[in-house]
Design a protein that fits this description.
This protein is α/β, with parallel strands linked by helices. The protein has ten helices and 14 strands. It folds into two domains: 3-123 and 131-173 and 222-246, NAD(P)-binding Rossmann-like Domain (Rossmann fold), CATH 3.40.50; 189-220 and 250-317, UDP-galactose 4-epimerase, domain 1 (Alpha-Beta Complex). It is 37% helix and 18% strand. It is globular, with a radius of gyration of 19 Å. The protein binds nicotinamide-adenine-dinucleotide.
């Protein structure tokens, strides 16, 4: 049986990954400070250590004595807007605190390290779908902090032999049976649209309908969190350290997401057109052929209806998220 440390396992994606591993007989220790996560999002079958990766002694001690086969590192801050007003917060947490974890991985002789990276490391791409070979020129401090951690990983591999997979996800979406999306503040499109269907918001804002796309709204690649979880599990056995995109290769526009959500929820979901936001590329779609070929990844959720239905089921079960 494999033993895995999951940092950020009280967050949106980390909680579903923890559940996915436990369902497949892995032993999981969740390490999370709960700074943006929720105690109720920690799967009850996991061991939970409440702590901050910035506490260097603590995390090195946990990893050194934990007898882990692998580490999945989800813990980070991820609000793009905030990263442009308080970049230090992002570099300290996403890079600095993450380095403590890497030193723990070396001290604990951990065999593999799976990192939550992001398509935000590409900035404004020149090719669609985006291959891993695309130039990485982030346009915000969040993307830069993730790229810096990717670079640190390369050196930990070269110097200490730490095998790694930096998984560059596109837009994580959907829910598992137990765990779903409950961020505060919420900035992601699908949960915001579903809040309109729940009656928590009057309408959804569409930022720009004059982009060079078929319906004029921005196109993004939505990937289900259980497909992300499958890729993380496979990446624990990574033979070729490096970078892997995780996306569906199919984009959906903002208007398409709203239309599918109307069908799934049966709600009219009024929408208001607002001016474009700075720094929103018209299309972000990932080519995930490398993850399929090298990791053997087989995503299962390939249509928007299934992804949004899973999110809607979770929202109906937990109308106020984890807030009791
Ligand atoms: N949500 C997406 O669409 C998306 C897309 C690409 C990449 N990512 C990356 O995936 C990861 C998870 O994203 P999410 O949406 O689940 O975020 P989240 O905010 O829901 O989860 C992050 C978790 O990490 C914990 N955490 C943060 N800093 C910590 C620290 N120093 N010590 C201990 N715990 C800490 C938080 O309490 C939280 O539980 C992040 O690294 C994010 O950058 C997310």
């Amino acid at each position: 049986m494999k033993r895995v440390l999951v940092t950020g396992g009280a967050g949106y994606i980390g909680s579903a990954c923890t559940e996915y591993l436990l369902d497949r007989d892995y032993e999981v220790v969740v390490f999370d400070s709960l700074v943006t996560g929720h105690e109720d999002a920690v799967d009850k079958r996991a061991e939970f250590v409440k702590g901050n990766l910035a506490d260097r002694e603590l995390i090195i001690d946990v990893v050194k004595n934990g007898n882990f086969d692998g580490i999945m590192h989800f813990a980070a801050f991820s609000l793009v807007g905030e990263s442009m007003t308080d970049p230090g917060k992002y570099f300290r947490n996403n890079l600095g605190a993450g380095i403590n974890l890497l030193d723990g991985a070396v001290a604990g002789n951990v065999k593999s390290f799976v990192f939550s990276s992001t398509c935000a490391t590409y900035g404004e791409p020149t090719q669609i779908p985006i291959p891993e070979s695309e130039k990485q020129l982030p346009i915000n401090a969040y993307g830069e902090s993730k790229l810096m951690f990717e670079k640190a990983l390369k050196w930990y591999k070269e110097i200490f032999g730490l095998n790694y997979a930096a998984l560059r996800y596109f837009n994580a979406a959907g829910a598992s049976k137990q765990f779903g999306e409950d961020h505060y503040p919420e900035t992601h499109l699908i949960p915001l649209v579903l809040q309109v269907a729940q009656g928590k918001r009057d309408s959804i804002k569409i930022f720009g309908d004059d982009y060079p796309t078929p319906d004029g709204t921005c196109i993004r690649d939505y990937i289900h969190i259980l497909d992300l979880a499958q890729a993380h599990m496979l990446a624990l056995d990574v033979k070729e350290s490096g970078h892997y995109n995780l996306g569906t290769g199919n984009g959906l526009s903002v208007k398409e997401i709203i239309d599918v959500s109307r069908k799934v929820t049966g709600h009219a979901i009024p929408a208001d057109i607002e001016p474009r936001r700075a720094g929103d590329p018209p299309r972000l779609i990932g080519c995930a052929d490398r993850a399929k070929e090298v990791l053997g990844w087989k995503p299962e959720f390939e249509n928007a209806h299934d992804i949004i239905s899973s999110a809607w089921s979770w929202v109906q079960k937990f109308p106020n998220g984890y807030d009791k």
